[in-house]
Design a protein that fits this description.
It comes from Gimesia benthica. The protein is α+β, with helices and mostly antiparallel strands. The N terminus is likely disordered.
C-alpha cells in the first residue's frame, strides 16, 4: 500500500515538473511590461519604401580554347580585346567594363563525353581541350533617369554587341553533360536591376514602421478605454525568422511574396524592371495609462 502511494506521489511530481518545463518558454517570452506586472500594448509595425533601379548589371563570359595552353591564352586575349572594343564603341554614358579574373581549365572532348555518358571508361590519354575564360562585369549607372523604353533599347544594344563579339551575356546555360537537362540552368537571367544607398532607404522604412506601430497601438488603446503611454521596448524583426507565432509567419510570407525577404546590403537587386521595395519591421511595446 505504501509502495502504491509512493509511486503515485512520484508520478504526480514528474507530471508537475513536465508541465513546468512546458510553461517556462511561455514565461520567457513575456514582454518587459508584462513581466513587471504593468499593463501594456505590443504591436508589430511594417514600413515599405520603394525606389527605381539606379544601376543595371550584366555579366559576359569571354573564353579562348585550344589543344595547347598557349593557343587558348592567345585566343582568349584576342577575344577579350574584341569584346572590350565592341562595348566601348557603343559610347554609352555610364557604362563600365570590369574583369573578375581569369580561370584556366581543361574539358573532355566529344568522344570522351560520349564514353562517360554510356558508362564506359574514359580514355585520359586522349588530348583534352584547354580553356581560358574571364567573366566581365558590365555596369551601367544612372538608369533611373531613363524611361523603361530607353533603358530596354540600351540593354539590347549591349547584348547584341556582346553576341557579335562572341561574349555570352548572362549566366552560363551550358549543361554539365551534353544532351542533358539541368533545371537550374534552364533560364538565362541576363540583367540585374539594382538600387544604391539601401541604408538610407532602410532608415526611411523604419520611420514608416514606427508610424504604423503607433497608429495600431493608439487604436487598440482607444478600444481598451485607456491612453497610450511611452515606449517601453522596441525591437527590430527579421521577417524570415522562424516563429511559432502565426501572425509572424503570415507577415514573413507576405513580405516574401513581395520579394522583400532577407537582409540588406549596400545594394539591393531585382530581376524585374520596376521599383524595388526596401522593408523594415519593428515590434514596439507601449505603456497603457
Amino acid at each position: 500500500m505504501e509502495c502504491n502511494m509512493c509511486g503515485k506521489l512520484l508520478l504526480s511530481q514528474i507530471r508537475s515538473l513536465f508541465l513546468l518545463t512546458l510553461a517556462l518558454p511561455c514565461f520567457a517570452q513575456l514582454s518587459p511590461v508584462a513581466a513587471e506586472g504593468e499593463t501594456g500594448i505590443t504591436v508589430v509595425g511594417t514600413g515599405i519604401v520603394e525606389q527605381k533601379p539606379t544601376v543595371v548589371e550584366m555579366t559576359g563570359l569571354v573564353i579562348g580554347q585550344g589543344q595547347l595552353a598557349g593557343d587558348a591564352v592567345t585566343k582568349y586575349h584576342g577575344n577579350r580585346r574584341r569584346a572590350e572594343d565592341a562595348f566601348k564603341n557603343l559610347k554609352i554614358p555610364g557604362l563600365v567594363i570590369q574583369g573578375d579574373g581569369m580561370s584556366l581549365y581543361s574539358s573532355l572532348n566529344a568522344s570522351q563525353m560520349q564514353a562517360m555518358m554510356r558508362g564506359m571508361a574514359v580514355n585520359n590519354t586522349q588530348s583534352q581541350e584547354l580553356s581560358v575564360s574571364e567573366t566581365l562585369k558590365l555596369r551601367l549607372t544612372g538608369v533611373d533617369k531613363l524611361s523603361p523604353e530607353e533603358l530596354l533599347e540600351i540593354i539590347v544594344r549591349i547584348v547584341d554587341a556582346g553576341k557579335d563579339a562572341g561574349v555570352v551575356i548572362g549566366n552560363d546555360t551550358t549543361p554539365m553533360v551534353p544532351g542533358t537537362y539541368n533545371a537550374s540552368k534552364a533560364r538565362n537571367t541576363m540583367v540585374a536591376f539594382k538600387i544604391q544607398n539601401v541604408e538610407d532607404l532602410k532608415n526611411k522604412a523604419y520611420a514608416k514602421a514606427l508610424e504604423d506601430a503607433r497608429s495600431q497601438a493608439e487604436a487598440l488603446a482607444k478600444l481598451a478605454g485607456g491612453k497610450l503611454g511611452k515606449v517601453v521596448a522596441i525591437n527590430t524583426v527579421d521577417p524570415n525568422q522562424k516563429s511559432s507565432d502565426s501572425s509572424s509567419q503570415m507577415l514573413a510570407q507576405y513580405l516574401a511574396v513581395l520579394g522583400m525577404g532577407g537582409g540588406q546590403s549596400e545594394e539591393q537587386s531585382s530581376a524585374l524592371l520596376k521599383a524595388i521595395p526596401v522593408s523594415a519591421v519593428v515590434r514596439v511595446t507601449y505603456a497603457l495609462e
